Amino acid sequence: MKIKLSKKQKLFLINVFIICSIISLILILSLKYVLPNKSSQDIATTIGGILGTFFSFFGSVLVYLALKAQIVANEIVQKQIKNQEETDYFRNKINLVNERINILKEEVNNFIYMYRDKEEKNGSRDIEYKGSQAIFILLSKNVNTFYGRLKRDSFELEPKFTELYKLLQFYQNTIDMIENEKFDNDSNIDNQIKLNFYSSLQYFFSAKIKWNFKSMENKKSKHSDGCPDSCGQNHGLPEELFDLVDKINSKLS
């Protein structure tokens, strides 16, 4: 890794070099007065020692600055690695939620309800409905389902109610997961990501589910209650489905 010195470090090195050079020069020039009786060889040896000390000190300064620069460089690399790990971590979370939302939409669009049409001229036949239409037909064809004097559970009489309830639970759990997760350390970015998820879910919920239930709201009934039209019998659509739809709508509003 190429180590770059800052302007302050370069200025410091220049000052150290100049100071050491001046000191060394003064010492060398004063040798003939300090050592008048020494031979030229002895004086040369002394000068070599002075210069050696100077270069050794200057080299130590260079080593110190190099090590300091290396430490700073390592810290920068570690920070970059950490930032990349955080980016990958949050990206994986976002991808997971996107995948879950895609699965949710696919499950709603592939929801199937079979209804036997007994009014056909050539005899009854099964008609298959899919997606939002299947949800509407399921609700509309069961508004008058009679639960009997023992008030049998509507989910028992119509298994598709259970499947729809589980699908709505999956919708609600997806919203809760988005609400509880963190998608970025920046709160503004995190909120924007969540808002994008909510907007996608809200549009799909309103288009495919919400209004099917709104159109049947006057037909919901608790199993312990009588007919909404006061006919004395226990029938109507299970209130649990409507309650769950209301909870989802509240979270997305």
TrEMBL record:
UniProt keywords, alphabetically: Membrane, Transmembrane, Transmembrane helix
Taxonomy, superkingdom: Bacteria
Membrane-spanning residues: 12-31, 43-67
Protein name: Phage abortive infection protein
